[in-house]
Amino acid sequence: MAHATLPDTDLPTEASWLSRNKLAIAPWFFLAPALVFFAIYVVGPIFESLYLSLFEWNGLYDAQGNSTATYIGFENYVKLWDDPNFWTSLVNNVLWLVLFMLAVPLGLMIALFLNQDVPGMRLYKSLFFFPFVISQVVVGLIFGWFYNPDFGVVGQVYKALYCEETINIVGNVTFKCAGSPPDILSSPEFATYGIIAAGLWPQIAYCMILYLTGLNNVASDQIEAGRLDGAKGWKMLWYVVWPQLRPATFIAVVVTVIGALRSFDMIAIMTQGGPFGSTNVLSHYMYETAISEYGERYGYGSAIAVVLFAIMLVFISYFLWRMYQDEKGGR
Amino acid sequence: MFRKLTTAAAALALMASGALARDLVINFDDLNPGPKAAFEAAIAKFQAENPDINVIANNNDREAHKTAIRNFLTADAPDVTSWYPGNRMAPFVDAGLFMPVDDVWEENGFNEDLAAIKATMSRDGKIWGVPYSYYQWGIYYRKDIFDLLGLEEFATWDDMLAGCAKMKDAGVTPFTIGTKFLWTAAGVFDYINLRTNGYDVHNALTAGEIKYTDPRIVATFENWKQLIDECGFVENHASMSWQDAIAPFANGDAAMYVMGNFSVDGYKNAGLTEDQIDFMPFPTIDPSIPLAEEAPADAFFIPTNAKNPEDAKKWLAFVARPDVQTEWNATIGQLPINSKAEVSDNKFIQEGFALLNSATGLAQFYDRDAPAAMAKAGMEGFQKFMLDTSTMQEVLQRLDEVQAEVY
């Protein structure tokens, strides 16, 4: 026991550099694994893409392992400027960003609707949340079938309204229609909207859950105070509840922007960017030109990635700036 | 991803010859039951003939193989890999990743026996691989519907247009197709182009030597427009895969399908019997043009970094032998390329064999003959044109721009 008490008195003088600075070092120590992987898998590839976008390269190395790339300067970016598919993708990206924002008010609406005391409310809430739990791939498949003009709901409803059943030449049942049924995913005008609608389904559920947790934290004394002052309905929502939901709104907007920019999987499942590239977004177009079977243009694909990164950078900088401001305000 | 299937024969051979056995690594790309069985049977046979070679076979999914080959040719090359001729082999040949095998062709008399495919296997004056199988393209049609309407197989374009009119009167859509994955439209384009302009124009176009706005290609598109207007394809084809497009064909709503022979299984699975379906070559448009056909081939190549090129060449010589090709293709239901091989008595195989043996040229397929970036843009253009034929000029001009960039 005496042995244990002795060193105490000597500690301050004998303390190593490590223990003297442990408060400063500890966070870095715990951050290190994440930082290393972030550097290797995120920061590194960003610079690699920047570098590769200056080359023309089909992704191959020769038998000795030397890259077959040739340096072409900014030519890939010049080509991008003249590439109608690139502009289609960019416009679609903007469409996604704008229309995906609908998830925020719609999510709030459902959250307000579900935020009441009714027996079995938990069940309803989880049912509304359900689409977010399903994988994006499955959502894409389901909506793909839903839109299918032959066997999907859209096609069946159309058939019921405008087609008559007849027997064809070999004696099988077939349908004779007044016009062709709407084929949303193959029409260059509507396909993108069709995919966005599919993407909104889980995104609304996500925003809803964010708002539901936000509503739990709304101070009930303020609500009551508002009631005493005669506020109700829209006024209550606008002046009392909404300001308290600001943190939830911020997160909802952030995840929706991110969701809109990484709309890759829905497109890959539902249309592969088709018909003839009209539903492409930058991320899918990049995949198509660089990695897919008909791509193998890594330099050009990297140039698209750089443009996409530049767009994301605008949002990322804004969000970081906002968070930094909040932190400063919080101290 | 990789499935190691060192065969029982390989294990036996290893025991028999012990440390003397030389390893031969073969990467193959088809896990479907038929092709897999044929490949394994061929290995067993090869092993029995060469007990001193220890074959290590890696069989991979086709799509995964397409990605993996780009790495393993440099990083960890097998001794033999399966791949495709035409432009698909061009990037690897140009990067120096494949080994020329002219000597294998010379020693085994392949220059005569495989003559039809030699041009496709060549690049820069050298031969780069040995094919083991191919299959024909053409029009698969509903025999029962043709009989009901009193139609015969179409010999000429005008016959076909007249036949289409009859079908439409009877409420039958002449053609089914599913263009969701684009390449099916290229089959139609290739055939109309081969019949309008011939084999040399097909090659010149896919090699980037003539423009898409060239009057000859415009003529092809005019014919295609006529086919769409007077015959017509099923609606909604842009939302269907080639398998989905079998449904209207099987139901009797559509009577014809421009397809490859691999689709026969699909028709049978959809409930059609062999009496209900038949095959006809794509009809002639200009009688002065000699008939060339689409016949995509599958082949084996030796990577430059192969560790055992000697035995790899033995395998290449082996897979092109008439008896091996006969057995292999009987199992997978395709055509042997060696002219001395025999074909099974399946009617589609018989017709295909006769068709391809009389052809003056064999095209691989638009997306195998043209470079990848061109093929992608081209097929998107074909789909756009099929959905709205008034976009023809716009599509052709866009393809000219892409062509100028790609080549």
Automatic annotation (TrEMBL), chain A:
Compartment list: Cell membrane
Membrane topology recorded in Swiss-Prot or TrEMBL: Multi-pass membrane protein
Major subcellular location class: membrane
InterPro entries reported in the protein's UniProt record: ABC_transporter_permease, MetI-like, MetI-like_sf
Keyword line: Cell membrane, Membrane, Transmembrane, Transmembrane helix, Transport
Ribonucleoprotein found in the keyword field: no
PROSITE patterns reported for this sequence: ABC_TM1
Superkingdom, taxonomy of origin: Bacteria
Annotated TM spans: 28-47, 94-115, 127-147, 190-215, 236-261, 298-321
Domain ABC transmembrane type-1: 89-319
One Gene Ontology biological process: transmembrane transport
CC per GO annotation: plasma membrane
Stated family: Belongs to the binding-protein-dependent transport system permease family.
Descriptive protein name: ABC transporter permease
From TrEMBL, chain B:
Places the protein is found: Periplasm
Domain of life of the organism encoding this protein: Bacteria
Record lineage: Bacteria, Pseudomonadati, Pseudomonadota, Alphaproteobacteria, Rhodobacterales
Signal peptide: 1-21
Family: Belongs to the bacterial solute-binding protein 1 family.
Alphabetized UniProt keyword annotations: Signal
GO cellular component: periplasmic space
PANTHER family: ARABINOSE-BINDING PROTEIN-RELATED (PTHR43649), BLR3389 PROTEIN (PTHR43649:SF14)
UniProt-recorded name of the protein: Sugar ABC transporter substrate-binding protein
Organism (species): Pseudaestuariivita atlantica
Gene3D superfamilies for this protein: Periplasmic binding protein-like II
Record InterPro entries: Bact_solute-bd_prot1, SBP
